[in-house]
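INTERNAL AUDIT FORM
Audit reference: QA-55
Scope: verify that the stored structure record matches its stored sequence.
Auditor: D.O.
Record contents follow.
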Amino acid sequence: MSAESPSDKRIRVILADDHELVLEGLRGLLQNEPDLHVVATVTNGERLMEAVRRLQPDLVVMDLQMPYMSGLTCLEEIRREQLPVKVLILTAFGDGEAIQLAWEREADGFALKTDPPRQTVAAIRNIAHGHVVFPRGALRGGGREPQPNPLTTLSERESEFLALVAEGLTNAQIADRLSVTEHTVKFHLQNIFQKLGVTNRTEAARLYHQYRYKL
């Protein structure tokens, strides 16, 4: 595993693939992008999990087939541990089953190694900014189309209010925590509910817990 020092402003990325040639190609592609920073490259699933836990990147680009732990197994582990990292599956296998499995395991995106390089870079940026990127029309046979993360519609302040709602705090407790009036809390919650398309605190909290690790 190779690693670089982290950057505070750029999107911090870990690359995982069992082919060194692919890793070097991806690193070379991304190193010329001023907003992207490769903090580590790994060649198997176990090292990927170690790197994600230690380096806490913003995004992981990984293959499906890797030694010791497959990409899908790593994805399941990342979600089980609730590690706050976005995941792009980059693979040579674009069959419907692979795409569906990645979607069901809450990957943030799915791309093919045969895609144009600029398309892969765009997918990384879109995912980093909260969007879900899957091949158009790929999820069929009962699969639902992926939707953008609804939490990205909220302002930073609204996200702060929603997080406290999701903790189960009352309006009075939120007001006390944030040093505002209850009227201000109600105002923000009304706007939050409208943006999220929900009608109550329970629905808003459910969306928060569902999408917060995809921000």
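Auditor finding: record pair retrieved intact. The beta strands are 2-3, 11-16, 36-42, 59-62, 86-91, 109-112.
Action required: none
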